[in-house]
Amino acid sequence: MQISRLTDKVMEQSDTINRLQEKAVDFGRLERHFGREQVQLIVEQTKTLEHAERAKKCPERAFEMSRQKRGLIGHDGYGEKSNDTAVC
User: Fold this and answer.
1) CB of 82 within 8 A of CB of 76?
2) How confident is the chain (88 residues) per 10-residue block, as mean pLDDT?
3) Residue 39: its pLDDT value, please?
4) DSSP state of 20
5) What pLDDT shows up at residue 67?
6) Residues near 57 by beta carbon (within 8 Å), at least 6 away in sequence
7) Is the distance from CB of 58 to CB of 88 less than 8 angstroms?
8) How far lies 29's CA from each of 16, 17, 26, 73, 84, in Å?
9) Looking at residue 76, what is its pLDDT?
10) What are phi and psi of 25, to 5 degrees?
């Protein structure tokens, strides 16, 4: 049973590696077509926009988290442990 589980995990990792290698090749194509600097600029601008969007969606969460650290409220702000996986 253990060997089967580990074999499945190795196959899963292999699939992940293959997909990442394909993405790297595609990224290289974009760099050759548009130029490395242009692609890097687009990536950095997109990261900045994504960060700003996350920050805009979650300003209240940061306040709640600071209150949690002081023990004033529960994990979700209402005394219950939250399953929320959003990162703000």
Assistant:
1) yes
2) 92 97 97 97 96 83 60 48 47
3) 96
4) H
5) 58
6) 88
7) yes
8) 20, 18, 5, 50, 37
9) 46
10) -65, -45
